[in-house]
Design brief:
With about 230 residues, this protein is α/β, with parallel strands linked by helices. It has a single domain, classed as Rossmann fold (3-Layer(aba) Sandwich), CATH 3.40.50. Helix content is about 40%, strand content about 25%. It has helices at about 10, 15-25, 30-35, 55-60, 75-85, 120-130, 150-155, 165-175, 190-200, 200-210, and strands at about 45-50, 65-70, 90, 105-110, 130-145, 175-185, 215-229. Strands 3-2-1-4-5-7-6 form a 7-stranded mixed sheet. It binds S-adenosylmethionine. S-adenosylmethionine binds near residues 112 and 113. InterPro entries: Methyltransf_11, Methyltransf_Superfamily, SAM-dependent_MTases_sf. GO terms for molecular function: S-adenosylmethionine-dependent methyltransferase activity. It comes from Intrasporangium oryzae NRRL B-24470.
Length: about 230
């Protein structure tokens, strides 16, 4: 199994992360950008680092099959529970560097805020080369810390993060990038506060909430990195 990268947000608070997922990109900007590269209708899809499997039923609406890959056992179990009774969906307790399926098993690979964070994810990229069929596509969704309100919070909380180094990494790998502007919107201030509280250390969360006393959402820039096979 590849090195497991701790995710304190979803590992510690899967219920709040569920609220977060429901508030991410309600306008489906990411979905539209992905579909314009390769539509997954009738395709075999893998979601790497699927967490609690939030996106599995969503892919299953159009895909032929959907496999969630998740190395953290409690989350893999939650993902299994989510897709119980959905015959086209399954979950593998594996990591990105060894997905544990045959060569050329998938048409589309998707990884959202999971494992593929730039330098260090080379073993997972080699595994994508193995498991994605010729003609297929892989998508990685991650923060664009150079832009947006959320990006400013992210860089303030993580000053050592070097977005340019991440961009150079993907460019060296020959991946392409769509700069996307999405929203992070919640139904109530309580939800917003809870989600800020799992994404940021207490001193940063307090600052964010003090600076945005009435907010229930903000603008959020992300990069959609992708390549065809
Ligand atoms: C921030 S969560 C995102 C979960 C999911 N993609 C979503 O959008 O709901 C990151 C996930 O990556 C998983 N992860 C950690 N190391 C991994 C690895 N080596 N391979 C695949 N996934 C990994 C974590 O356990 C966690 O579930």
């Amino acid at each position: 199994m590849s090195e497991v990268i701790p995710s304190p947000n979803i590992w510690g608070s899967p219920d709040v992360y569920e609220v977060e997922n429901r508030g991410v990109d309600r306008d489906h900007v990411i979905e539209s950008a992905m579909r314009s590269v390769l539509d997954w209708a009738g395709a075999d899809v893998v979601d790497i680092g699927c967490g609690t499997g939030y996106h599995l039923p969503y892919f299953a609406r159009d895909a032929r099959s959907v496999v969630g890959v998740e190395p953290h056992p409690p989350l893999a179990e939650l993902a299994r529970q989510r897709v119980a009774g959905m015959p086209s969906c399954s979950v593998r307790e594996e990591g990105a560097a060894a997905v544990g399926v045959g060569d050329g098993s998938f048409d589309v690979a998707h990884a959202r805020w999971a494992y593929f964070f730039g330098p260090g994810c080379e073993p997972g990229l080699a595994e994508l080369d193995r498991v994605v069929r010729p003609g297929g596509a892989a998508f990685v969704i991650d923060n664009d810390a150079t832009r947006s309100t959320f990006g400013q919070w992210f860089r303030r909380a993580l000053p050592s993060y070097d977005p340019r180094a991440v961009e150079r990494f993907w460019e060296r790998q020959g991946w392409r990038r769509e700069r996307l502007d999405i929203r992070w919107d919640f139904d109530s201030r309580a939800d917003f506060e809870a989600v800020v509280g799992i994404e940021f250390a207490p001193e940063h969360a307090d600052l964010i909430l003090a600076e945005h006393p009435d907010a229930t959402g903000v603008d959020y820039a992300v990069n959609l990195w992708w390549r065809r096979y």
